[in-house]
Every structure is written in C-alpha cells, then in structure tokens.
Design brief:
Elements lengths: L8 H7 L2 E10 L3 E2 L28 E2 L3 E17 L5 E13 L29 H6 L3 H12 L10 E9 L1
Antiparallel strand pairs: 1-4, 2-3, 4-5, 5-6
Amino acid sequence: MGTDYNGPAALKGLLEGFGSNFIIRAGSGTPYSRISQDIVQNILSADDTRFRRLIGEINGSRLPWQINMDLRMDKDFQLTAKAADGKGRSSSLNLYVLVQNVLNAKRIASLYPATGLPDDDGYLTSPQAVQPLTEFQDPQAYIDMYHIAVNNPDNFKLPRVIRIGAIYNF
C-alpha cells in the first residue's frame, strides 16, 4: 500500500496492452418522397415514375432514426526474435475482436415509397391485386411467393457481424 502501490499484480500483467473502443453512431432518417399507394400496380410499375403520385412534398418523408453501436477489444503481445548476429528484433502481435452492430438492430437502408416499409410494396393490399388473387388455385402460395419477391435484403443494413483477427507488427 501507500504511494508505491500499482494495483493488483495479477491484473497488471493481464490488462497490460489491452484496449477497447465503443462507438455509438446515431442519425435521423434520410428523406424520401412518399407516393400514393392506390397506384401501385405491380413490383415493376412501382419503380416507374409515370405511375407515381406524390404524397406531401418531394423528400417530405423520412426513414426512421438509426442507432448503431460497434465494439472493438484488442490485446498487444510483445514478441522478440533473435537474429543470426545475436541482436534482438522487436515485434508485436495484436489480437482483436470487432463486433459491428452490437445490438443486432434491424437498420433500414431503403424502403418502398408507397408504404414506407422495407419489406412491403403495397401491391397485395391494393385494389389491383384482388382480381388476380381470386384467379389462382392457391392464393396463399401466390402471397407467400410475392412476399419473398419484395423482401429485398438490400433494403436492410448488415446484422451483427463479429470479426476476429490478428495484426503482426515487425
């Protein structure tokens, strides 16, 4: 104890060269132009500007707020190698774990402008879909396949990603 105390000796060796970073990023949603859902005819015409009727102003709607948290933990290990002439060379090894999107939040990158949703373009609930659905032998199969078609993975950002790596410095 006293002025010469440097902490527990066991932890000092264990935590020496250890580091961690915690990054939090937040941002308001980016703007987009909402269109009327009553004109959605199919997945192709929803992207055609001739079929759009604007609701509100250009870029008057916004995606939801986005919050992202990343964590990186690393530890340095000092290595020494003897050369043929007997001189030592200093090198180090850094082992790290990087966790991106720690909370595994469902972050939206893009959406369908008629519904404001990333996984529904509004066609199945539109009047244009009623007639085709009655003509199919198995309407539920059509609905399931349509949901698969419009559920674009590019509308979402990456889920939690864990990377483990090493950096050798010499």
